[in-house]
């Protein structure tokens, strides 16, 4: 079966003879064709046919082509629309493309031009897989993952089996490729879905704090421990604990983690009592753990404990058919939040998105779309804005709140190291009173006792 056989086209024209001719021509080219003799009829057919492309006449009785386009855009913002007209003019074409119409063809239609424009429009919306299935009840577990990529769909089928097995899962993939999102989907597909999902980035927390963060500490265990802190293992009790960037975990803590996984018991910092735990572990890394084991940076026994099921998450460049879907989804999300009147991307802008290298993966794509939406002054995002956003996204700048939190944590850890855990001394250096300084330490789960020599 030809690939075109999977694509569904909706043709709209009040000229019945032309409609029949176009239907025969496009069916012969391998497309599944449905026809409508009015804009109103086309709107009624949309939820039934679920076309991948709409080809509509401009001038029709009742609802004309642009009115039909506006109605389609309200509920199907990613659906490309090509307008045909025997009354074409440059102003009409410019206005239509500014409003988000994909293409503009003048009658009488040239067969090759028609087929080429249809092919170009369909290439922007990826292969014709029914992504609507992702919203179906049985697929709610992967509701956050927007894809129509065969590679991703194959990975998701493996993830579903892994989730149902209850085994530990190791997700491999580049930074920004969506490892935490896949981990959350595995949690939702498992029999632990009603219990907590807790995530921690092992590379984002200083080594001296990670043990307390994972296993907790008891009240009075050290100066400043004014109350018990349960730790992330206990917070995830009965559910799933996601250990992101597990390859960055220090060796000393790897030993303690292995013991906890083997014994299913843990002891908070400063406590003499062990606590039973029931947690499913999903871990992730962008590192080659086999090389880390060979270099002595990662324990082989822990590796086998975590790597019961291994899932390789493709980078964005390996699933380019998802770029139009993701870009339009992010755009709609940002528009809903900001209220800006932006409806889509110019074809040239989408071509740029499809061709980009995306070293930062899905996270970088979101940043590019966010900047383009913020700076756009027209309903359709032009090529230039996307080009500039891609260039600037190579130097990623953290949001202010995240940068401030990161600075505070690093600053406090540095103070604790300098003063060897002496809170009074550290508070004086920071120019804060002890009470306020203890609150800062508590906010970042920093344990002074861990810094004492």
From TrEMBL:
One Pfam short name: Response_reg
Sequence ranges assigned to domain Response regulatory in this UniProt record: 8-122
Ranges where the Sigma-54 factor interaction domain occurs: 145-374
PROSITE patterns: RESPONSE_REGULATORY (PS50110), SIGMA54_INTERACT_1 (PS00675), SIGMA54_INTERACT_2 (PS00676), SIGMA54_INTERACT_3 (PS00688), SIGMA54_INTERACT_4 (PS50045)
GO molecular function ontology, one term from the record: ATP binding
Residue ranges crossing the lipid bilayer per the database entry: none
Residues annotated with 4-aspartylphosphate modification: 57
UniProt-listed InterPro entries: AAA+_ATPase, AAA_lid_NorR, CheY-like_superfamily, Homeodomain-like_sf, P-loop_NTPase, Sig_transdc_resp-reg_receiver, Sigma_54_int, Sigma_54_int_dom_ATP-bd_1
Superkingdom of origin organism: Bacteria
Ranges in a coiled coil: none
Keywords assigned by UniProt, alphabetized: ATP-binding, DNA-binding, Nucleotide-binding, Phosphoprotein, Transcription, Transcription regulation, Two-component regulatory system
GO biological process assignments: phosphorelay signal transduction system; regulation of DNA-templated transcription
PANTHER family assigned to the protein according to its UniProt record, in alphabetical order: TRANSCRIPTIONAL REGULATORY PROTEIN, TRANSCRIPTIONAL REGULATORY PROTEIN GLRR
Protein name (Swiss-Prot/TrEMBL): Two-component system response regulator GlrR
């Amino acid at each position: 079966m030809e690939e075109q056989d999977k694509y569904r086209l909706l043709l709209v024209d009040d000229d019945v003879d032309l409609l029949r001719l176009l239907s025969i021509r496009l069916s012969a080219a391998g497309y599944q064709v449905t026809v409508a003799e009015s804009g109103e009829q086309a709107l009624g057919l949309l939820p039934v046919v679920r076309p991948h492309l709409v080809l509509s006449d401009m001038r029709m009785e009742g609802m004309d082509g642009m009115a039909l386009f506006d109605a389609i855009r309200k509920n199907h913002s990613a659906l490309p629309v090509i307008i045909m007209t025997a009354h074409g003019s440059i102003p009409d074409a410019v206005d239509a493309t500014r409003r988000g119409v994909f293409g503009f063809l003048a009658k009488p239609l040239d067969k090759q031009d028609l087929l080429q424009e249809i092919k170009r429009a369909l290439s922007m919306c990826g292969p014709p897989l029914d992504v609507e299935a992702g919203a179906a009840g049985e697929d709610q577990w992967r509701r956050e993952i927007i894809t129509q990529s065969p590679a991703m769909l194959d990975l998701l089928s493996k993830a579903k089996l892994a989730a149902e097995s209850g085994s530990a899962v190791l997700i491999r993939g580049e930074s920004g490729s969506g490892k935490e999102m896949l981990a959350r989907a595995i949690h939702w597909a498992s029999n632990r879905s009603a219990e907590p999902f807790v995530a921690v980035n092992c590379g984002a927390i200083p080594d001296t704090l990670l043990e307390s963060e994972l296993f907790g500490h008891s009240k009075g265990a050290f100066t400043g421990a004014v109350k018990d802190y349960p730790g992330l293992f206990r917070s995830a009790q009965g559910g799933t604990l996601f250990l992101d960037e597990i390859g960055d975990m220090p060796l000393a803590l790897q030993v303690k983690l292995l013991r906890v996984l083997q014994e299913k018991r843990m002891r908070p910092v400063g406590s003499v009592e062990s606590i039973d735990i029931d947690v499913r572990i999903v871990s992730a890394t962008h590192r080659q753990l086999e090389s880390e084991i060979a270099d002595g940076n990662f324990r082989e026994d822990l590796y086998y404990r975590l790597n019961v099921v291994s899932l390789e998450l493709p980078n964005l460049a390996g699933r380019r058919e998802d770029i139009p879907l993701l870009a339009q989804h992010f755009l709609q999300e940002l528009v809903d939040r900001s209220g800006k009147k932006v409806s889509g991307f110019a074809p040239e802008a989408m071509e740029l998105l499809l061709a980009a290298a995306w070293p930062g993966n899905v996270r970088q794509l979101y940043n590019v779309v966010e900047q383009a939406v913020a700076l756009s002054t027209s309903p359709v995002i032009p090529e230039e804005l996307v080009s500039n956003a891609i260039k600037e996204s190579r130097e990623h700048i953290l949001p202010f709140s995240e940068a401030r939190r990161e600075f505070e944590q690093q600053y406090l850890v540095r103070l604790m190291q300098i003063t060897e855990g002496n809170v009074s001394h550290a508070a004086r250096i920071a120019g804060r009173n002890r009470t306020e300084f203890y609150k800062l330490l508590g906010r970042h789960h920093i344990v002074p006792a861990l810094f004492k020599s």
